[in-house]
Amino acid sequence: MANDHKAAGTLQSGLTINAAFLKEIKDDNRQLKTLWDRAGELVAHRQVASNHYSELVGLIEQLCDQLAIHFSLEEAYGYFDDAVDVAPHRSVEAQRLRAQHPGLFTQIQALSDQVARIDRADLEKLAKWIERFDVFQCKFQLHEEAELNLILDSFDDDLGVGD
Q1: CA distances (Å), origin 110, targets 5, 60, 92
Q2: Is it the case that residue 89 has pLDDT exceeding 60?
Q3: d(Cα 158, Cα 133) in Å, to the nearest integer?
Q4: Domains in the chain and their CATH numbers?
Q5: I need a surface site. Which of 90, 123, 137, 161 has the fewest CB within 10 A?
Q6: DSSP strand E in the chain: where?
């Protein structure tokens, strides 16, 4: 039963998520998905990135701005501090994920600054930047998947799945 944790004394005050709102933030962020999709097309090959260099620089700047909004919304409305009756493991995971936001944002800012300084004809530097961007994109996707899993776990607890 969903309240077994409470009866067993395993719930405590801590950080939790507003699962419904956090899910809505993720579902409604079509612009972010569009930017990721286009970035994927542009970085698929260094020659494509070079040929569309100005677009790439602008797109990464937009991605940086959009991620700032995305993380701000998640932090402002998707997480609750000092929530009552939070399963300890869920609070720890929520804290871990929220703590990743500043680092992820710092990384996309650095990538945006770096790509703007690359000579479009320097395919080797562009290729190295693409590798760093790919690593960042993987980190971001893993972060988003972990948040979605936390949302699903929260919904399961709220609905009493597995009772």
Answers
A1: 43, 10, 28
A2: yes
A3: 37
A4: 17-159 (1.20.120)
A5: 161
A6: 12-17, 79-86
